[in-house]
Amino acid sequence: MDKAGFYWHVRHNIVLEWCSDAEERVAAIKATKPVNEVPTRLRLMKPVLAKLPDELATAGEVLGVAQVAYDNATQAGSRKELAATQEVYNDAFERWLGALYAYAPELKALHAQECGCTEWRWPGLVFPGMVEQGSGGITKKDKS
Ligand SMILES: [Zn+2]
Q1: Cβ(64)–Cβ(16) under 8 Å?
Q2: Spacing, Cα 41 to ligand 1 middle (Å)
Q3: Do the strands 120-121 and 46-47 form a parallel or antiparallel pair, or are they unpaired?
Q4: How far is the CA of 115 from the centre of ligand 1 (A)?
Q5: 79 CA from centroid of ligand 1 (Å)
Q6: Residue 111: is its pLDDT beyond 50?
Q7: DSSP readout, the chain?
Q8: Ligand 1 ion: nearby residues, β-carbon < 5 Å
Q9: What pLDDT sits at residue 33?
């Protein structure tokens, strides 16, 4: 697996995104996610093969850089640096979401072509033990 690039299903609630370190993300999934989610997450996190539209690709890469800067500031513990990087991250995230919505029809088609999983139900993955709740909501299955 390449270390950096666009991947499908890096997280459960975004269909694809830039991942600056895929090996690190895989390790984090194994270490922190619920046991019933790990196999699905690992199976579905895979590189995007197509060249994304420039606007989308640029927004995704900018968000990836902003995420790394924010994570570094968090680890450094500098409030000033954290505030600055948070603002840049928020702006980059808004731009990324805007691009995702702008290209939603193309992304749905590309997802069907490249990934084709049945677990992705906009706007999130359905894991074993979860049920869909009507208008896009997904929750843990009620045991009662
Ligand atoms: Zn998928």
Answers
A1: no
A2: 10
A3: unpaired
A4: 5
A5: 37
A6: yes
A7: --SSEEEEEEETTEEEEEES-HHHHHHHHHHHS-TTTHHHHHHH-EE--SPPPHHHHHHHHHHHHHHHHHHHHHHHT-HHHHHHHHHHHHHHHHHHHHHHHHTHHHHHHHHHHHT--SSEETTEE--TTEEEETTTEEEEPP--
A8: 115, 117, 120
A9: 94
Rounded distance from Cα 73 to ligand 1 centre (Å):
32
Residue tagged 């269909």 (tokens): 15
Q: How many angstroms does the Cα of residue 77 sit away from the middle of ligand 1?
A: 36
Q: What is the pTM of this model?
A: 0.81
Query: pLDDT per residue over 42-52, tens digit each?
Result: 999 999 999 99
Q: What is the pLDDT of residue 14?
A: 86
Cα 140 to averaged position of ligand 1 atoms, centre (Å): 20
CA–CA distance, 123 with 98 (Å, rounded to integer): 15
Distance 112 CA to ligand 1 centre (A): 7
Average pLDDT score over residue span 76-81: 87
pLDDT digits (tens, 9 = 90+) for 13-37: 888 999 989 999 999 999 999 999 9
Ligand 1 centre distance from Cα of residue 95 (Å): 23
